[in-house]
Design brief:
Largest sheet: none
Distance between the termini: 10 Å
Helix content: over 70%
Radius of gyration: 24 Å
């Protein structure tokens, strides 16, 4: 098992090195004039030259690449051309809110998607199975921005059950400051015992969380159903039933264990994708996450911020994929 994990870590490092190299070369090849953004549009020729020296653009490309790798090893992702602040500092400000939203969505996906897939496979070609597949296909296919606007129309405009957006209401902060320990408001409220603010934050995360969760719920449900349909026809399942083992135990203990490999991989990759692709949901619900940071960086051509966000997404993918591989490797056949 350790040998398998070590091989996967080495391959992940190679992938990350490739991403770093490609993003660095693209940022240097594309015409962007970062010295103009750094010094200002009305900078003189001397000021522009000084900006090139400060940014290291006067040095050969390989020297720039070597220095960039050295900075990455130290955890330095460069400095934003717009705010003049370290990109790592800005990511630490925006990432926790997105991470909280994505974790909430994937907890929903696991709690809802796996049971839905299990009982859809058990009730194959029956009414529950048809309804479950219809829901899964709809959840995967519907545009995220349309779902977000639809939820706002129903639950805020018509029913007035949930807030239209934001991370927390203004009234919740009148009688106390927001706790800041992990940067994830729900967890921070639980750690500090601020249950009134927790309830308010929970109401605010419901609509964006469910919107983000729809796609992984549909994906998990479909993959679990597909894997279980094959496993439920295996001989050991038939033998277990003939021994009188309860159907619930056969499904949840024996069949599900061998179906989790494919599901775990898809969940991990989907979570990595969602981490950097929530900007539409965050924009619609005014959620203070990394989505707004990425969109602002793209529109202003802030290449250090774009590269930092890209590396964050790549590292997220690699770590989540590594975790999925470790989960799958609990089956000795995969390690071999």
């Amino acid at each position: 098992m350790l040998k398998y994990i070590f091989k996967r870590i080495l391959s992940s490092i190679v992938v990350l090195q490739g991403v770093v190299t490609i993003t660095f070369l693209i940022s240097r090849v594309l015409p962007s004039a970062p010295e103009v953004k750094w010094a200002g549009a009305r900078a003189t020729a001397e000021q522009l030259e000084q900006a090139r020296i400060e940014l290291g653009l006067d040095q050969p490309l390989m020297v720039q690449y070597g220095k960039y790798l050295g900075q990455l090893v130290k955890g330095d992702l460069g400095t934003s051309l717009n705010s003049k602040q370290p990109v790592m500092t800005e990511l630490k400000q925006y990432v926790p809110a997105t991470l909280e939203l994505v974790l909430f969505a994937f907890i929903l996906a696991i709690i809802i998607g796996i049971p839905l897939g299990i009982y859809s496979a058990k009730k194959k070609d029956k009414l529950f199975d048809h309804a479950s597949r219809l829901f899964s296909i709809g959840a995967v296919s519907l545009p995220t921005f349309w779902v977000a606007l639809f939820f706002q129309l129903i639950f805020y405009k018509l029913l007035n059950w949930l807030p239209i957006g934001g991370e927390i209401s203004i009234m919740a902060t009148v009688f106390g400051d927001k706790p800041h320990i992990t940067g994830m408001l729900l967890i921070d409220c639980m750690l500090t015992g601020n249950w009134a603010m927790f309830a308010d934050a929970f109401r605010h995360i419901l609509l964006p969380g469910i919107t983000v969760a729809l796609y992984p719920i549909g994906l998990v449900s479909r993959m679990t159903r597909s894997a279980l349909l094959e496993i439920l026809n295996e001989d050991y399942i038939t033998a277990g039933r003939s021994y009188g083992i309860r159907e619930v135990r056969m499904l949840w203990k024996y069949a599900l264990k061998n179906a989790l490999g494919t599901t775990a991989t898809d969940v991990a990759l989907s979570m990595g994708y969602t981490l950097t692709d929530t900007f539409l949901v965050e924009a619609i619900f005014s959620w203070p996450g990394i989505g707004s940071y990425i969109s602002n960086s793209i529109t202003t051509m802030d290449y250090p911020a774009i590269i930092g966000s890209t590396l964050f997404g790549a590292i997220s993918y690699i770590i989540l994929n590594l975790l999925a591989d470790i989960i799958i490797a609990s089956d000795p056949r995969v390690r071999l």
